[in-house]
Design goal:
single chain; 12 helices; 8-stranded mixed β-sheet; 343 residues; elongated
Length: 343
Amino acid sequence: MKIDLTDTTASKINNALVQGRRAIGTPAIGMVLTLVIVTDEEHAYDALKAANNASREHPSRKLVVIKRVSRSPRDRAQARLDAEVRVGTDAGAGETVVLRLYGDVIDHAQSVVLPLLLPDAPVVVWWPVNSPSDPAKDPLGALGQRRVTDTYTAEEPVAELSARAAHYAPGDTDLAWTRITPWRSMLAAALDQQPGIEITSAEVEGEPYNPSGELLAMWLGDRLGVPVTRSVSGGPGLTAVRMETKNGVITLDRPDGALATLSMRGQPDRAVALKRRDTAELLAEELRRLDPDDIYASSVKYGVDRLNVAPAAPKAEAEAPAEKSAPAKPAPSPAPAKKAAKK
């Protein structure tokens, strides 16, 4: 069921939600959270489709905030709120309100969203694209206990990771981080099979400008305390992780984006499922836990600039012979030169 409201208010939207629930015969709310989706018109359809699929695991009220930029100065001076209320099968498991903001009300989106939040329920704010540099201080982000961004959609994804580290606040997370959960689980399980093994270095291979590769490399560097190299491949996504140990190389190789092979010395190669997941699966995973992710915080603060850095000792040893062999003969000292002149 859909109800269109033009030039409306938050109270009229709440009345339309009650009317819609009664019309389909479900007056009880029965939702566990409010999901605020901040996006533009271009990406609204895909974002809402993913949220509807995720809501089958997490029934929620979905508030889609679309800021419509007016073309003329007259239109920009006129504040207006249009809404589309969806309940029943059109809204997944829960209910949906699509909010289109015009004019000055764009700068006060939080005042529109606040009266529509479910009482006594957690709030998650998700930016599918164009996330703010500091989500916790954003007016809409301040309403949420959890703030979800996606650095993969940024123009410079790797540089965006530095901004995430600089402005991190408890409750921030990133779908680029969620994408590597199966990789982290599989690598941790591989190391558990060889307790006490000493790792000397690691390498993460994947597409260029893929922030998931950088996050996985930073996680390895932060957890293991070893130098990590980030190398480039043709993809899709992440393709391999190699960990050098004194007992050989542990390799997790996924060339096709679906099936990976885990190889380690002394054990037969094993095929493991590492399918690339869609946005709905990633969002559903993030909604399972609403407490701060301390492991993500530690990993993103590790720093992209610390990747691809060779150990200091080998570098010094390699340069030492070149420095010693540079001068062919020592230059004569000034004192012997003067004595020779007197003679």
